Amino acid sequence: TIATVTYQNCKINSVNVRANGATTADLTDIGVYGGAGKVITFINTTTGVRANLDAADKQVGGAPDSGIILNVGKTIVMTLTGTGATAVDFTVTIEYEALADGGYLS
After folding, report:
1. Measured CA angle at 21 (ends 16, 64), to 5 deg
2. Residue 36 DSSP code
3. What angle is formed at CA 36 by the lines to CA 31 and CA 37, rounded to 5 degrees?
4. Phi and psi of 47, rounded to 5°?
5. pTM for the full model?
6. How do residues 4-42 score in pLDDT, each as one tens digit?
7. 48 and 31 Cβ atoms separated by less than 8 Å
């Protein structure tokens, strides 16, 4: 789990994943999803393929056409697919706005 919507509903404007170094050959791809049962796709596995994240500062992102609204308690998760258990080093940036005062991602 990358983030959970807390206190008030939030609109997700974009999600970006940046590699902080050379990504291990163990990794095949990543996907970033939201909502119950990962029904919302922010970054699909085609965009999140290792070749797009295999060196420092390579990035992939997803921006829904008009923002996606997630209710309180809903999550944004990242799924890593690959052949081994070597750690990866990514920075995830989520641009969002609260739909009422006090909403945030935790």
Report:
1. 10
2. G
3. 55
4. -70, -35
5. 0.93
6. 999 999 999 999 999 999 888 899 999 999 999 999 999
7. yes
